[in-house]
Amino acid sequence: MRRFLPEDRMTELDERSHPFRDSHQDVEAARTIPDTAQTRAPAYRLAFTDSEFLLREELRPVRLQLELLKPQMIMDARGIRSTVVMFGGARIPSPDRREGARTPALAALSHYYDEARRFARLMTERSLKSYGAEDVICTGGGPGVMEAGNLGAHEAGGASIGLSIVLPHEQTPNAYVTPDLCFNFHYFAIRKMHFLMRAKAVTVFPGGFGTMDEMFEALTLIQTGRMRRIPFILFGPEFWHKVINWEALAEAGTISPEDLELISFVESADEAVEIIDNWVVPCP
């Protein structure tokens, strides 16, 4: 027998195998205690309901663990086994908003919004065949390319994940992330783990520092053998060859020539899907 909390339908509790009162019962009981000087004192609060206590410097290891566990448990409960990650710039406009882009170069990149949208739609149509267990689109939850990815999944009638993070000037999650799969992070490192833990493929669209940070961290994990090799697809060859001199890295010896084989460059959603479809795990 399993029961769900009314506050959070995604939280699943296994039937207790012991006779002790559970934490929810005590939380409810604590709300009904008489109001006295003692019960108002911070020391009297149950530790796991005391936000001031949980935010103490010494509790950082616990907060790291909670940020790892919460999305993990929710995605496990949804039966999500694999994802298709979409990194890309928050500033890339949709074609109908390209006139408002801050630079002509940014406006010229707007067609990648449509490619991201189409790619996400194609992958989500495939995801629906597994009832949303495989090939689930996973973005950073924001605007630009991220919005396009969640929009494409929404148009296909499937779910998609948004891994947001608290930033000083960050906007709210885009409207197309599946609400039950819209997460918010404090720690960049844990957020990056969730991007890659279930990744079946990684796609990277033109973007700035954040996109490059995510791209290079994932590439480093694959290059060093800390992560198995998966399709790693960069949309926009002209953009990526202009902003990064990949061949110069190999010529300088700072990477090996074979490291360049970790990356595929494409211009369209169809090309990316073809790479994923024809992927053969390389021999170690």
TrEMBL record:
Organism: Paracoccus denitrificans (strain Pd 1222)
EC nos: 3.2.2.4
Gene3D superfamilies the record matches: 3.40.50.450
MF terms in GO: AMP nucleosidase activity
Name of this chain's protein: AMP nucleosidase
Catalytic activity: AMP + H2O = D-ribose 5-phosphate + adenine
GO CC entries: cytosol
Region Disordered: start-end pairs: 1-27
